[in-house]
Every structure is written in structure tokens, then in C-alpha cells.
Write a structure and sequence with these properties.
Layout: H1 5-49, E1 53-61, E2 71-78, E3 83-84, E4 87-91, E5 94-99, E6 104-105, E7 109-115, E8 124-130, E9 136-143, E10 148-156
Antiparallel strand pairs: 1-2, 2-7, 3-6, 4-5, 4-8, 8-9, 9-10
Length: about 160
Amino acid sequence: MGFSVSASAAILFTSILLMVSTLYITWENTYYQVIDAKSYWYNLKESQLHFNAKISSLSAVDVDNDGLLDDLNVTFTYLGPPIDGTFDVIFDGGYNQTVNTYKYLIPNAEYSYTIINGVKDTNLHTVVQAFPNGCVLKFEYQYNGTVVNLLSESVYCPTEVS
């Protein structure tokens, strides 16, 4: 006893219909992933293009309660488009901390963080703040025993050659 021609055709048609619908769903998901990737890339490039920040103040404080003003309080003003508020701090070439106090950085707002033992001597020190969009705020300072002097600051963002 075998299948009739119409039953075989119905099974074949159903199989083809399921295959085509699966392929369509896969194509649609891929299409939306490409659209999302293009949107992410555009937003990233825009945030890099308009990124800007500057140091507002540097001060010696005592955060670790050792009785010495040997910690550096950094206050900076963010001037770019809103971005994720998490950033890394590199102090004198070594990883220092990840600051995740702020959910977002918004334009014209001031943000602060502290580097423990950041002013324990009068040497020249370098700090790099690395932001999630790849841009960095780099500055150099020196402590003269009473005041923290900002010597230089600059902003860098990655660029690509086209």
C-alpha cells in the first residue's frame, strides 16, 4: 500500500513551504542584524567625531584616611554627545581603576573620581581616561607640595584611513 500522488504532492508542498519560511526568517534576522550594525557604527563614529572633554580641576585630598593629602581628585567636564558613563583610568602607564559611578556622560556636566596616592610625590604624572567609544582624555600634572598644577591635556579619538 503506497501513498497516492496527491498525498505525496501535499507532503512535498508542505516540506517546501516549511523550508522557504525558515529561509525567510533567517534572511530577515540577518537583514535586521546588518541594519543594527550599521546604526551602531554610525552612532560610534558620530560620538567620536563630536567627542570633547576637559579637566575642570585637580586637587590633593585624603580619601584613604591615612592623614596625608596624597590622593588626587580629578574633576572633568564632558562636552560631547551622551555616551556610556563607564571609563578606565590609566595612571603613569598602568591600569588604575574602572570608574562606573555614572550611567551616562551628558554634555556640559562635571564628573569626578579619585586616584589613590596620585600626589604622593612631586614627580610629573600622566593620566589617561579611556572612554567606551575609543576616545581618550590624556593629561599631565605635577604636585608642588601645596597645589596640583595641570601641565597639559589633550583629547584623542581613533580614526580610520579610507
